[in-house]
Each structure stands twice: as C-alpha cells, then as structure tokens.
Amino acid sequence: MCMCLCISQAWAQNRTITGKVTDDNKQPLFGASVSVKGTTIGTITDEHGSFTLTVLPTAKTLLFTAIGFENKEISIGDRTAVDVQMTSSNSVLSEVVVVGYQTIRKKDLTAAISSISSKELSDKPLPTFTQLLQGQATGVQVTTQSGRPGVNAYIRVRGIGSINAAPDPLIIVDGLPVSTTAFALVNPDDIDDVTVLKDASATAIYGSRGGNGVVVVSTKKGRGKATLSYNFQYGGVRAQELKNARMMNAMEKMQYEYETGYYQNPILDSMIANRITSGALPAGANIFNVTDAQRLGLWQTAASRGTDWRKQLLVKARIATHEITLAGGADKFSYYFSLNKSDNEGVLYGSYWNRTGGRLNVEYQAMDWFKIGTNLGVSATKENQVREAYNNQNAYGATYFTNPYEPAFLPNGKYNPTLQNFNPQEGADNNPQVFNRISSFATMYGEGKFLRYLTLKSQFGINYNTFKEEYYLKKGSNLANILGYDNKRDGGNQDFLYVFTNTANWRQTLANKHNINVLAGTEFTRSSFYSYSMQARNFPTPSVNTLENAAGPYTATTSRAEWSLISYFATAGYDFDNRYSLTASVRTDGSSRFGKNNQFANFWSVGAAWDIYNEHFFKLDQLSALKLRASYGTAGNNNIGNYTSLGTYALNVKYNDLPAAVPTQLANPDLTWEKLKQYNIGLEFGFLDNRLLGTVDYYNRRTNDMLYQKNVSYGTGFASYQSNVGDMRNKGIELSLGYDVIRKKDLLWNVRATYSHNDNEVLSLYTDDVVDASGLGKLKVGQPVNTFYMVRWAGIDPTTGKNNYYKKDGTITDVYNGADAVNLNGKAPVVKYFGSVFTTLRYKQFDLSAQLYYSGGNYIFNYIYRDMENDASDPTSNLYVEALTYWKKPGDKVINANIHDASQRVSYNTDRYLQKGDYVSLRDITLAYSLDNSLLRKTRILKALRVYLQATNLWLSTKYKGVPEVGQINSETSGYQPGQAQLYGFPQVKAMTLGVNVKF
Amino acid sequence: MKKLTYYILAGSLFLGACSKSELDLFPYNQVETKQAFNTEQDITLAVNGMYNRLKSSGSYYSGSWNIIWDCIADNLIMNQSGRLSQQKYSKWQYNSTDTHGMYQGGYTIVRTANAILENIEKFPAGAFKDNAKGEALAVRAMTYFDMSRIFSKAYVNAVDADSTINYTTTTDYNIKLPKEPLKGFYDKVIADLTQAYSLINTSNGAGRLNKAAVAGLLSRVYLYKGDWTNCITAANNALGTTPNLPSIANFPGIWTDVTEAGVLFKLKNTNTDNVNTLGVNYYQAVGNPLQMKSEYVIEYNLAQLFQPGDVRTTTYVAKDSLYQTNRYNQVVKWRGRAGQPAGVLDAKVLRTAEVLLNRAEAEYRSGATNAASDDVNLLKTNRINGWTNVSYSGQALLDEILLQRRLELAFEGDRFFDLKRRNQPIVRDGTKGDKSNGTGISYDPNTLTMPVGSKLFLMPFPQLELDFNKNLTQNPEWR
Questions:
Q1: Local structure of residue A612 (DSSP, 8 states)
Q2: Exposed, middle or buried by CB within 10 Å (0-12, 13-18, 19+), for B197?
Q3: Best interface-test mutation with B: which of A563, A596, A654, A662 has the largest number of B CBs within 10 A?
Q4: Cβ neighbours, 10 Å, residue A612
Q5: CA of A468, closest CA in chain B: separation in Å?
Q6: Residues 6+ apart with CB under 8 A from A658
Q7: What is the ipTM of this complex?
C-alpha cells in the first residue's frame, strides 16, 4: 500500500520534456545523448534530432553529450521544451580519448599521448593502418619492414626501449591484446580512433607489457541515422628507383669483365665456340685474343639479346579495394556493419596479398542501468610470399645478380634460367608459397551503472588466429631438379588468446569542482599456440598437390607453447576546477615467462597537470590554451620467449631417425622483468583562438634489468643465456606545431609540422661491450644500441691501387685483420630524429593535402653496395656502374681497387659500406573533390560523394646508395635488428591511387 | 535484492583473479637439465644427442669439412662458373672473423659428451654404462683432436711452449678457458681414447662409434704424434687380421651408402634428415638435361693421378664433364644415394683404408719396410683392377704410401692436415687452369706456395671469443 502510494505520487509529479538537438550548422543531430544530470535517466535523439524524456520533479539540469561535440548543460527550470545547438569540439584540448581501460577527457590527461581520430583516418585511405601512424604521432617511429604488400611495420614508441624482449608497443584492439601480425588483418577503415600512450602515467596501467608504449585501437560504433557507404580504390604500384646507383648495362658489364683480364663469361664463350665451328673465328680464339672489332661484334650481339632485369622482374602491380559499411544507431541500439575486400599485388613478380573481412559491432542498452555489446571482426588474407633469399630465387636479388646480356626467355619461349641457374619468374610460377591467415577478434561486454557513480564492466575477449602455409616444390620445376626431389609442405599454426577483464569505475563530481575518477580491476590472460608441418614427396603429376596423392608421407611434426598472465590494477584521477589534475595508477602482474623467483612484479605511476589557461590570474589576449603536464612511473616488458628461464635439454632432435636430447638452454632462475622508468614533462598551448596549436614534450625513459643474452665463453658449448644485463636510456623531445594560415569559409589552409628527437644510450652492462647477433655491431656502454663495430676502410692507396685499412692504433695498412675492428662511436642503426610536414589546402569542394616525411641520424650497413662494388671478387654477377671506375694507374684517386691485383679480389665488411640513412620523402599527396551539398540534396539519396587521386612516395632525397628506408634486412635472414643492414629485401614502393567514397 | 546483485557483480570482478599455479607452465619439447639424466633411456637420448651435434656442427664432418681442407691445399681449384663459395679458404684470405664455427662448433659437440661423463657415474656398473662412457670419451677426444689440428701447430713441429685449445672436461658455464700445452693435450686425447677403447662395445650399429673405430682414431692420433709403435698396434686393433677395405666391387657402395664395409665410423644422414651440405659443398645439379655446376673442380695435376682401372677414379671423379660450354674434372664422390635427393649421404669420418695407410706409414718409419709394402699392395689390390703386387722400398715406398693416401682420402678433408703433419709446404701449379685440359683460370699468383711455418697453416682463434675471453690469447703467428 505504502509502495503504491509512493509510486502514484511520483507518477503524478513527473513531467515530459521534448526538444530538438542540432549541430553547428543547425542540422539535426542524431544519436546525441540527453540525460538528467546526476542520474541514469536519459535517452538518445532520433534521426530528426528530437527527443522526449520523462523526468522527476527533482530534475534541474539536462546534460547533452555527443561524440565529437562539447558537452552542454541546460537548466530546465519549468520548461517542457528544450532545443539545443551543440558545438563541435574542434579544439584539441577538449577531445575525449580512449586510454587504459576507460575513456577520459583529453582535458583531464596528465599523460603524453598521441591520438588520431576517425576523421583523420577517413581522409587518408591507406592499405595498412601502421602507414598512417607514420609521422602523425610524435615520438612514434614507424618503419615498414619492406615493400611487400601486407607487411608489418616496426613501431617504436620513444626510441628502442628493449633489445631482446621485443621493443614493439602493446597493441590493444577493443580491449584485446593482439600481435602485430594479427593487427595487420584489421581493416583500417574499421578503426574509429587510435591512441598511442607514450609516458608512464598512461602506460603503467598496462604493467609488464606497457614499457614500450601502448597503441589503443577502438573500432567504429554506429551512431545517428543509418548511413550506407561504399568506398572504392584502384591504383598502380611500382618499385622505387635506386638512388645514387645504377646497374651496368650489357655493354658496360662486358667491358668490365674484359678489363678484369681473366673472367670469360660462358655466353660469350659459347658464341665464340660457335664461330670457331663455323670458321668465322680461328681455333683457340677467346674474348681476350680476338680483334677489337670482333670483340665489339660479339658484345653487340650479346647486348641485343639482353634484358633490363629491373624492368623484367619489378612488375607494375595493381591494387583494388572495395568496402561497404552500414552504420547507425537508434534509441537503445547501435550497430556498425562492414565488409571489405582488398587486393594488393606486389612489385615482385608473382607476389600478392589479398584481404577479405567483415565486422559487426553492436551495443544494446538492455535496461536503464545495464548495457551489453559485442565487437566481432573476422579477416582472412591470402598471400603468395615470394622468396627473399640471398640468391636468384629472390626476384629482387636477381635484378642485381643477373647479367644484362642474358635474354629473359629461351628460344623455346621458356624462362631463361641464366648463368645464375635460376629464373625467379619460373620459381614464382612453379614453387608457390601461399599463406592463408584468418584472424577473429571478439570482444563481449556487459556494463552496469549503480549507485549513480559506479560503473561495473565485465569483458571477455578472444583473439583466434590461424595460419596455413602451402609450399609446393613442383615436380619438373628447376628447383626440384636441382634438389633431386619434388615436395609439398603443408604447415601452419593457430594461436588462441583469451582475456577476461573486470573493472569497477567510480566517477563523481562534488560541488561542481572536484572531479573524482577511480578505477580498479582484475585481468587474466592466457595464450596457447599450436603449430604443425607435414611434407610429402613424389607426386604422380604436378597438377595435383594435396598430400594424399604423394607416394608417401615424408615428415610430420607439431609443437605447442603457452603463456599466461595474472593482473590486478587500479587507477585514480582527481581534477579540481578544471585547473589541477592528479592521477596515479598501480598494477601487479604475474607472468609464466619469468623465473620461479621473480614471477610477480609491481608497476606504478603518478601524474599531474595544471591548466594555466583556466587560472583567473592568467589572462593573455592572444593565448587560447595553455596546459602543463608532468608524470613519472614504471612499466615493464615481458616480450621474451616462453620458457627461457629454464635450463633445458631439447627433445625435438633426432639422430639416425631415433629420438635424441641435446642441451639447448642454460638456466637462469633469477630471470626477471625488464623495468622501464620514465618521466615526462609536457606543455600544450594554443594561440589566436587555437589557430596556432602546439605541444612540446620532454621525456627520459630508463630501461633497467634489460633483457638480453648474457654471453658465455664459446668454450662452454653455449653462446649465451637469457638474462638481465644492464640499463639503457632513451631521452628526447617531441614537438608538434600546427597553424591555420587561412581560415575562411571557402578557403582553408593549414600547415602542421612534427619533430621527434631521441637519444639512445646504453648506460651499463655486465661487461664493457658485447657483440650483437649480427656481428656488425656492439652494445657498448655510453653508445647507442648496436653501435657498429668493424674494421675502418682507409680508401684506395693512390700509389698501389690496394685497399687500405686503419689498424686499431690509427696507422694505415693494406692487410685486412679482423682484430683491427673498432667501435664506430656515434654510428648506430638507431634513428635519431624524424617527423613530418603536413599541409592541407581546402578550396570550396577541392582539397589538396601533402605529407613530407623525414628521418635520419642512423647508419645502415649496405650489403648490396658491398656486393655491387666488390673489387672483382665476384665478376659473375652484375654490378653498379661505379665499379668501372677502379684504380688503373698510380695517382688515381678512386674508391675501387685495382681489379688486376688478385690480392684485392675479396670483399670484407668494413665501414666503406656503412652509410647514412638520412632521407626526405614525399610520402603522400592527395587531391580530392567532394560534391557540393546542394547538388547532393537534389539526388535525394546521396549524402556524400568524394573522388580523390593519391600518390605515395613520389619523390625521395638521400645520399644513400639504393633506397634508404630499410626495415628488415630481408624476410629470410635472422639475427639483424631493424634497419641494421640491407640485403635484397622486398623493395620499397611508390603508388598512384584513384578512389571514390559514396555515402547514402 | 538489489544489494545482492551488487555483491554478485563485485564478486565477479575477482573471478579473473586465478590461482598462482596458472603461471607454472612448462615446455612441450624440452626437459629441465636436472631431469635429463635420470634413467638409462635418458643416457641413450643424450648419446644420440651427442651424435646429433657431431652431425649438425657446420664446420665439422657433416658440414664444410669435406671441402675446406682440400681447397686450402692443392687438391681443388675454384670453378669460376660456380658460386665462388669458400673463396677465403681457396685464396688464403681467412682471418680471425672466419673461424668462429670451428671453435664454437667443436665445443658444442664436446659439451654433450662432458654432460654424459659428468652424469654417468651414478649408474650401476655394467655394459650399458661402460659403452655410453666409452662413446662419450671417444667423441670428446676425436673432436678435441680435430680442433687441435685446426688451431695449433703440427705435433712434430711443436716445442714444449707451444699451446693449443683447452681440453676442458666440465659443463660449468662460468669458465673462460686459456690455452694449454700442445704436448700434454695429446696425452689427454690418447688417455681418453685408450679408456674408451677398453669400455666401448665391439658393435654399436652403423653411425655410432665402436671398439674398432676407437682403435682407428688412436692410430690416427699416434701417426700425428709420430708414435709409430703404438700407431701400428692401434691400427692392428682396428683392422683385425683380415682388413675389410672393402673389395673393388663393394667400394663404390661406400659412397652410395649401400655398404658399411670399410667404414669404421660415419655420421648418419637419413633421407628424413635430408641434409645435402656434403654434396652442395661441391656442386649443384642444374639445367635440363642436368649438368653439374661445380664450386670446385679437381686440380689438373691431381686429376692426372687418377688412373684408368682404379675404382677410385670412377667413384670420385667425373673426367671431362660438360658444364655449359666447358669441360671440367668434377668431384662426384658426394653425389648422394642412388635415386635419392642430390647430395644427401652419410658423412664418412674414418675408414679402414686410412687406418691401413696409417699403419703402412708407421711401419715404414719404424723400418718394417716389407710390412709397409704389403699394406700398400693390399690396398692397391682392392682398388686397381688386375693389380699385381710390387715390392716397394725406400723413398719409392714412402712416395707410394703418400700417393695412395692422397688418392684414397681425396675430398675427405685430409690433404691439408697431411701436408701440415709432415711439415710440407703447399705448392700449387700456377700454370694450370680449372678446365679439364688445364686451361681456364688458374690459382691467384700470390697463392702458389704456402711455406712451412706460414701462419696460414694454423687457424687464428675467433675474434669474438678473444674479445670475450681474455684468458685466451691469439696464436702468436696471428698477432
């Protein structure tokens, strides 16, 4: 009875408020949230921007929020109709960002982060998302591994914080930690926004995995009126040209061979033999004893049959992308649905990478206080991975090795195997290596609001990746003939990761001035990996290649590995009057990867921010924003192998087809976490109504207990064991400055520049210095990591024509001695500075944007240069034309030794081939046209239409011989750090693309 | 009710907090070292592991061993149409950055033997224990002996002060090994082999050491030491009363792995292993029809020594073999098993013919001329069709022993060490090229003579180890 009364009483006094929400342009705003401030009572606007809300009599203020707009509070009084025009949040300082386990106002940040919103994403259609990150975010160095389509990029946040433990940042997609390989399968157009967490204040909440930065990716959610869009892109891709180097043409190469005085190439030999048989040349003739005219005749004939191998093997590749999305949201339900297909050919003959995928993100407000949602994405790729070996099986290598006087085809029309005995086109046709990957991303969550301020969220995420590889060594193929067998290998792996996260979040504002935000949670992560490989030989005919057809199985093997992580974390933020912010976070992680004695570790951070602009005493007319931030904290890195703390015997070896055991790993029960401690000071400012916006950050990040191999004497039968070897520091500054030069209705022009500088230094080691895995560099106290270590080349002696070298003591010798290797202080493969200059010009319906990317301060060991100017140690393959300029007589000042001196026909790894990696590239230039709104309205169904032409990497400036953008050395050589050396990896590319975006 | 909901939800927060035991994960393909020697089965696995290491060590018997030592010497000349592999050895340009595999590779083998020896004593006395211990001692001694052949002077040249690699017997990983005197080192090799001989089984099956093989190894060590009496005794133990060399008919089968006759020790390389290094060291089969693209071909003068009627000529050499437009004398010894993948075959480490030649030389040096002559005739009877015995003596006898040694063990890694052992220079003919008729590209003119005492006769210690292990000093010749 009592209850009844209460209810009817309440009912009687409730009232209904209606209204309309519009945007800056007075267009209806769909999906905006309207709520009674301080309660959970609320609704969402419909497609006309209208809402109806029943409120309690106690309701005083309505809160209007919409993503991309500034929050608005309206006092209701006794009104029953409220119309609101919202202001879009174009100010950088008022954005909302997704950080660790929650979304907060950028205003409240005490941390250094870089965020890229969907707005910026949608203007830049790029096949992989990592390409977009490049240059956009200060302090985030992104280097694509190579020009291979679909390839991963190396992402380094604020320098190289780790060596042995992978220095990649943690990538979180919708709360799910994913590998860089899986991340490459996420359709970039499905990404809503990306936040790169750079300093400890932001990363400590990710504990043992946050030390090298965290990339937080959120996929799109539906909002507003249903919109159907279609994107199409089509383009051509070419390999970038070599800089400062050119391959010899046929005549030049034959001239060089002749000048060696001894090398007789078999092509000319056989031509001579035929002419001896026909009587045109006398018996005993060879290239050295025929007349000049006869020689020229032979050369011209050979040259006329020759091939420009760069043209032959570096093909014009095509790319095409289609994408359809349908997104929207109404009342209690929002949805985002997308399908995409992207076909990418590579510039090496036969290579391609095709992706097909879909995504469905839905959220449902089941009850006033409870919502559930799920983000589901599935992507599949198919790739033909052509070889990158250090021989002619690698088409890119073949453009260097194969002589230009050789025809591409034999008279019978088949590929010419050439003197290299292998034609990579034949290899690509007959020995395909096809990779199929499927990645599924699933995040399911439920979120409830209680007691006004408390939000509980429980989330379960799954990332399931499968990889399947088929490599066919087809019967009758050249390689099968060489090896003496045909073979088919079916292999692959699957990794399954699940993460169960539970958080409680308390957010409360007291007296309109004290904003409190506390979050605590637990998380359990487990990953299991399983791989298999099967081979069979002797197939009945090349046209069938499933293993069932083969005469018999040949090998079969499987393997398995697991890791797990238990975590507890909490973070708290307090903001006073939008002027002073304080944050703190802690995390405890326990990992299966570490030694018994050190499985658990704690991480923490504190941060503070002072919004000076909001101070009453601080008023400067020109100034429109000013904020100072500072933070300090720790995070870790557990990115090492799964069982490296154990001393073990491996059982996966055989002898005489019998099981065997060999010692494989030395024990280190004290193996522990790598800890990264970082402090950061930052200043954000805006002038002239934020026409000029800038950010400056200074950081100092110290890696303690760095994970690395600790060497033992080779006399132990081991090389090293996994250990914590010393300390390293990365410190640097990051600058970002943007200026809207012109801000008119029909004409917008802005320029933005970023600059990131990082100094890497090894601070301490268990010993003075250690040679790294490549043998080209060292870790040395006081120097950047992998500082090069080799014998110094002292040029060609003008008197003798011999290579000179510096001995350890600085004197000059013409005898190479490995013991004369020295540390080349200051020369390391570590990029010291990089950044971009962006500009956008918008005139009426046209917009033109461009990005210039620069990077430098690093050195690269150029193995290609070593091979291509090798002092005649290998005249059998083609060379750079510069090799023709060698020492011929006393007094010659050249860089190539006397090729007639047999003692010089050898090439050593000296600093002659160590080159600066500095470059500037016109990364992107895009011209777009968008259909005018008035025209759009006439069509009745079209909401937007945009057509664009985009060119990437059109122009490059460098002093490096070749192409200086070096990621991995190549895909088949291990032991090298990114950017350390170049050895015929898949060439970097440039592209021209035409695109259309249509919205209905 | 609502309160209860809160409790449930709050409780669910900590569902994610699992027990600590979730963190104790162990590998699926490894065992912890302390669990690796508990049972006899474990020892068997470790013994197989030891042979696996012998096989997988790239600078040794299944690696580059069968080419490097012949191409530094005068048996092989580079084919300029090949891939120009092993150039630094052929051109005598090796230095301290090239010897890493020889040093580390040797110790990785020894490490497996040392671990067995450290753990074997806890097993009960008996044949199993004796045999495993014998195999481990023998593998250790054999490997150390070969490392010493690489990194040190010849024994006959050495004075007491001369040193070699360390004969470590521990698995402690904190060691930084200094060198040790060469002469004492030989004593350790002999002691280990002698003990192994007393322990090891008469037969362990193909691919493993046995009593005869250990005796054969001893004869090799004594020959290098110049201990003729013991060399003969050891050789007798290895060969028995009727040496199986084998016969002419069976000899080619050694190289296609159809017979174990005449092979005292080899490392198995099964079709599943599919390691084609031994073949690829020499050549690739290319083109259609297939031709051999040789890395190295037989030096002209040596090719002339392979006579018609000698089974080794047809087994080892493809004379005047066509590649592209030129003809070469190619090595076909490592071509592989019939009808199987190219270049895949077992690595022959020790054969009875070598032991017989060890004995013949020891007999000659110790004055037993008739016995030496008989041994040479025995070998030639089993190699040359219709051979009639000749009574050799004096210098002619020694020359014949050394010639047979060069022919018999050609392309097996013996030539360089044989010249070094006997204090002979390497002398190459600068007038002959790589083609079978002696034309073509000859040796570099500055690599025609490696005089006795040249530093090139012993390898420098690897720079990487010298940089780390300050107790090790570079060979004085290389400083």
A1: G
A2: buried
A3: A662
A4: 17
A5: 21
A6: B48
A7: 0.92
